[in-house]
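Recall that a protein's primary structure is simply its ordered list of amino acids. Everything else, from secondary elements to tertiary packing, is in principle encoded there. The following example makes that idea concrete.
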Amino acid sequence: MKDPAEMKKRCTRVAAILKTLAHPQRLFILCTLIRGEAAVGELQRECGASQSLISQHLTRMRREGIVQARRSGNFVRYRVADPKLSELIMNMERIFNE
């Protein structure tokens, strides 16, 4: 049996991730990012939201460790930070697209 204190810590972390995923725009951004890295402008075109709104969502997700950023020339490119999260999103797409 797992250590209850460790399980509680994991549940807290997973709940925070699920809370972030519960916002439709953030979920859409993550669904876009599982296909590969993207800059804010690319996400803006894909998501149909303002650059400001996309940046706000990315800032929150970056702070929470859900996405990572890397500078590429004049742009910052974002990607999903954890392959397990990418797998979760792909599975949710598969389940809910049936």
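The chain has one domain: 4-96. DSSP finds five helices and three strands in the chain.
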